[in-house]
Design goal:
The protein has 157 residues and is mainly α. 64% of the residues lie in helices and 3% in strands. It has 6 helices and 2 strands, in the order H-H-E-E-H-H-H-H. Strands 1-2 form a two-stranded antiparallel sheet. The longest helix has 36 residues.
């Protein structure tokens, strides 16, 4: 069966997860009782809703049990470190994104940081069009602001 991970969703039903992971639904339900890390949320109707993180965990459990031939008890012992490893990876990713963000901020010259809001530089719309150097400075500031906001959006997504 070909797995298509191209379409990313926030939440998946148990039937979708069953197809993605090639596991029966009853196996997924059973693993919830055995592995404390696997706790999908439930919607208002009481149906399980799985996140991408849940699916990664299920695939890891499947690999341990089916491919590496661990017992459920052996897999439980390995999974005790799984959450810590995942949290460390997430922290490292967030730290590197923050470092990049801080580097982007440092690149902006300090005299231009708030120039868009400086009332001395931007007197009025009429003066703005008549004053070519001021227009260039404003355009430069707008481009820097646009770049900054796009980088910020990329980090959020």
């Amino acid at each position: 069966m070909k797995k298509n991970f191209a379409l990313k969703k926030l939440y998946y039903s148990i039937s979708e997860v069953s197809k993605i992971t090639d596991l029966e639904q009853y196996v997924l339900r059973y693993w919830e009782t055995e592995f404390e890390q696997l706790k999908p949320a439930k919607n208002l109707a009481g149906n399980r809703i799985y996140t991408n993180k849940d699916i990664k965990l299920i695939l890891y459990i499947k690999k341990l049990l089916r491919d590496e031939k661990y017992t459920i008890e052996g897999a439980k012992k390995l999974l005790k470190n799984y959450n810590t490893k995942e949290e460390n990876n997430q922290t490292a990713k967030q730290t590197s994104k923050t470092d990049v963000h801080h580097e982007n901020i440092k690149r902006f010259p300090s005299h231009n940081e708030l120039s868009l809001f400086n009332s001395e530089e931007i007197q009025s719309n009429e003066n703005l069009t008549a004053n070519a150097p001021q227009d260039k400075a404003l355009i430069g500031d707008l481009k820097e602001l646009r770049t900054f906001l796009l980088n910020l959006l990329d980090e959020i997504e």
